[in-house]
Specification:
345 residues, alpha/beta, 8 strands
């Protein structure tokens, strides 16, 4: 028998003693009270279990994995246990503001067409207090072709929709399961962002996104390219995949000539998405994001020196949406001076 009712809050916990009590307090003190709180301890070896057991609240349902299996698989297990109409995902180190659950439940009740809705957020532990930005559902599904468009610990899930299409956190992608779920959902329904700050997201060295950054990039790229092939039949070679990941996550290029190869790859991917008919997207917004990412990639590779500038001009000099010749030139000069390198063409 699964966990029923209208709302279940799902939290996976692994060695979270530093922030767990603060996170749990923010959940149990919500203005919206009618929910079950499923906590699954993923084999913690610190004081996490002691902290959880110190609460006497009949809304808490506590489960424990006999061994550590990873938070991604733990959350997947939790989703299989839940039969509630809605699932609110929370992490063991973040803070939900008091009216978060009420706002999200009200939103989903009035927007039955939405499968998953995230929120805007504050950021803890980071001097740049970014809070995401609101976008329409069409722009969200377009951005999802490049990057994760919603932060996972802010979401509420229409569980009836998820079960209808037999969706869950993909067990193949332990550290990118949220992104994989979003892409799978977008094949059948819509994502949304509620334009209110309803939580505070904590960034620290111990979290999954910090510890497994490279693996997360690899899995995210694999999932994006799976969707591309499914929608359009376009496939990339192993070398093309590496360059596409460098583009997606602003990695260092091996050589300035990679820009030429990357331009062909981006055209192939873009054409594949534009030619298919089943996945809705905003073509102009797609191009805008592609250009933004190209600019960042070029800046990140300024240490290649003037050859990267020449490659840029040969590929993009007359594309005014990406024009950054002077800016790239100045960054290269500064980089060369700081590294005390000889300026050569």
């Amino acid at each position: 028998m699964g966990i029923c009712g209208k709302v279940t809050v799902l939290m996976g916990v692994f060695n979270s003693e530093l922030f767990l009590k603060e996170a749990m307090d923010s959940i149990l003190n919500q203005t919206f009270k009618d929910f079950k709180f499923l906590i699954i301890n993923d084999g913690s070896t610190d004081r996490s279990e002691e902290i959880i057991m110190s609460y006497e609240d009949d809304r808490i349902i506590y489960a424990k994995n006999p061994e550590n299996i990873g938070i991604g698989r733990t959350v997947r297990k939790g989703m299989e246990m839940i039969q509630s109409k809605y699932v609110i995902r929370v992490d063991s180190d973040d803070i939900s503001y008091p009216d978060r659950f009420q706002e999200q439940v009200d939103y989903m009740d009035s927007h039955p067409e939405i499968a998953i809705a995230g929120t805007l957020f504050d950021v803890m532990g980071n001097p740049i207090n970014g809070s995401g930005h609101y976008e329409s559902s069409l722009k969200i599904r377009t951005r999802a072709l490049f990057e994760c468009p919603i932060i996972q610990p802010s979401i509420i899930i229409n569980n009836e929709f998820i079960k209808k299409y037999n969706l869950n956190y993909d067990k193949r992608f332990e550290v990118a399961g949220d992104f994989a779920l979003f892409l799978d959902t977008l094949k059948y329904g819509e994502l949304a962002i509620i334009p209110k700050k309803l939580m505070s997201y904590r960034r620290h060295k111990g979290q999954v996104t910090s510890k497994k950054y490279n693996l997360q990039d690899e899995f995210s790229t694999k999932k994006k390219l799976e969707l591309l092939e499914e929608l359009s039949g376009v496939t990339l070679s192993e070398e093309e995949r590496k360059l596409y990941m460098a583009f997606s996550f602003h990695r260092k290029l091996e050589d300035s000539d990679d820009i030429f190869a990357l331009k062909k790859i981006l055209k192939k991917v873009r054409q594949g998405y534009f030619d298919q008919k089943s996945y809705k997207l905003d073509k102009n917004y797609y191009k805008k994001i592609e250009y933004e990412k190209l600019k960042i990639l070029l800046i990140e590779n300024k240490t290649l020196g003037f050859p990267i500038l020449l490659s840029y001009f040969k590929c993009y000099a007359f594309n005014f949406r990406i024009f950054m010749g002077l800016g790239l030139f100045l960054r290269i000069v500064k980089s060369q001076i700081l590294s005390k390198s000889t300026l050569t063409f």
